[in-house]
Amino acid sequence: MTWTTADIGDQSGRTFLITGANSGLGEQTALALGSAGANVILACRTVAKAEPVAARIGSNASITELDLADLSSVRACAERTGPIDVLINNAGVMAIPQGRTVDGFEKQIGTNHFGHFALTGLLLPKIADRVVTLSSTMHKIGKIDLEDPNYRQRSYSRWPAYGQSKLANLQFSYELARRLGAAGSTVKSMAAHPGYAATELQSHTESVWDRLMGLGNLMAQSAADGALPSLYAATSDHARSGGFYGPTKLGGMRGAPGPATGNKRSRDELVAAGLWELSESLTGVTYSVDPKL
Asked: Please, which residues bridge with residue 17 across strands?
């Protein structure tokens, strides 16, 4: 399959909310959807950084403040948001030094998973079509520790922590699809990953990895190409609930989007259910999944 932005189709009258839409994959996703006629809400921590992107899109773009590392900001964003067709959980941090969110979560799982879990739950009654959550091929190095997801007892290591957060993203997407399907909801949930794409994410690890991955970017595909799996999942009639989409060449590192394969851990339904219960408990956001959605 060869799928490009030319295959997106007319999105006029549809509204997409994209987290982290001020740069990288989120920016490219927003630009492509805006060009297709969609109303695009750029949900970003720093509003000023989103303004140039909104200006490029035009009058069908708007900006809303969202800090996924602060649940009060997540709640405020959800309250301000009206009906939307598609939520794209794009924002994230990668391999950063140990830190805490405002609510005390380890910063990678707190931002990448718990923040998006809360946002999705709060917005779900307002979503008409689908939820797309970005994972990564690095989910394969992750393991969900339900006893200590926030690294309070165990020793912190940035890459396993990142892998845990990306595995959590993928498990959440699968579990949400199962729950929506069981409730008879027409809302869909799917996951995507960008392969190896050159974005600013690789330059914010605050370590020697910034330089090493900067060199690696010479071999990476562009952020625009890296955004294609998200766009496919968000717009294609062929993207199915419970699906996972990514590049189809070079072992999933680059190329046109298509079905991707999660590892065995990502399909562990017992762990996924445990993560769901833990996420509801820690965020205070309880999902209302019923056939009326």
From this structure: 41, 87
- 292, part of any domain: no
pTM value is 0.92
pLDDT digits (tens, 9 = 90+) for 159-204: 999 999 999 999 999 999 999 999 999 999 999 999 887 766 544 5
Residue 174 annotated among the catalytic residues of the structure: no
* Residue 147: count of CB within 10 angstroms of its CB: 10
Catalytic residue (choose from 151, 156, 162, 196): 162
Within a domain: residue 1?
A: no
Q: How many domains does the chain have?
A: 1
Supply the range of the domain harboring residue 265.
9-283
Residue 277 is part of a domain; what is its CATH number? Answer: 3.40.50.720
Residue 290 lies in a domain: no
Task: Using the CB atoms, write b or e for 214-243: b if 16+ within 10 Å.
Answer: eeebeebbebbbbbbbbbbbbbbeebebbb
Tens digits of residue pLDDT in 76-120: 999 999 999 999 999 999 999 999 999 999 999 999 999 999 999
Q: Is residue 190 part of a domain?
A: yes
